[in-house]
Design brief:
Layout: H1 4-9, E1 12-20, E2 23-34, H2 38-46, H3 48-54, E3 58-60, E4 67-70, E5 75-82, E6 86-91, E7 103-111, E8 117-125, H4 129-135, H5 138-155, H6 163-167, H7 170-189, H8 194-208
Antiparallel strand pairs: 1-2, 2-8, 3-4, 4-5, 5-6, 6-7, 7-8
Length: about 220
Amino acid sequence: MIEIVNEIDAIQREVGSGRLPAGEAHVIRLRRTFDAPIDDVWDALTDPTRSGRWFLPISGDYRLGGTYQFEGNAGGEIVECARPNRLKVTWVYGPAPEPGAASEVEIRLSPEGDDRTKFDFAHTAIVPEEMWGEYGPGAVGVGWDGGLLGLGLHLGGGSISDPEAWQVSAEGRDFYQRSSIAWGEASRAAGVDDATVARNVAATTAFYAPPEATT
């Protein structure tokens, strides 16, 4: 059994603004500490045989300037890679955006003693305002919470054997509902009004943990 509350509380979430070449962008940031040495965390992120075990199968040209593609998900270009501290990639889901408008994912790692690693993750994206107004940061933040859950389990020697089935299980639904609420709180801390936060949390929860079908 996964300690859902502990996993949700382990992440520090922030919502802010940033800039991409194409213009002003939204930024979500996740920070947590993993009970694993920095080289192990780095390898779990960058070794394709390992990343496929906790996230998704990946293919590509794994070098600076090369490209990657997660199966059935996003892909992009490897922009910066400084083992074992920093990885930055473009992140494109679906059709290629206008030049300079691809979102960016950056991960920074730093050791905390010999056996723990601080993980700092930022996703910067230009989001249509109608979409941001409806879903807020949870639209992508909840998904990244799931990614960090998988990474943490993997680093501890565990895994979710069937992620699709788990997402609709009682445990999975609890995780995604709590994650959506946590991103609502991060949005509120960034100055968003209560009514908008409530609308965002409801929409995000309905997407990731829709009501169970009744017969």
